[in-house]
Predict the 3D structure of the following.
Amino acid sequence: MTRPPSRFRPLWVALGFVLCAFGVLGLILPAFPGTVWFILAAAAFSRGDPRWEAWLLSRPVVGTLVTDYRAGRGMPLRAKWIACASIALAVGLSVPRIPVLAGQVAWVLVGLAGVLFITLRVPTRRDTP
């Protein structure tokens, strides 16, 4: 990956920290996925400062999630079920609050796209005990 000009690197690092904050929220909130935010944070840190990327990858749980994703190992089946159920729950609870039918349809399609991506494109990691 090509490095951005040095004047943009602090912005990438700042974005990495914002994305990390979303990731932490995702670890706490039940219907808010956290892994995707950490993956994006690692990508931002890699463009801004490799030391922050190394720091993120050295975190016990988060580093493993990001490393597994980057290596193409995918998600455990249980995590895929939880992610899809969280998307369905979030969409189901929020659609009635959207006043415009077109917005409701668009939101359902976004949720469906997320579920399809997880089920069809993300590999399932079969952990052997």
The beta strands are 75-76, 124-125. The chain is about 70% helix and 5% strand.
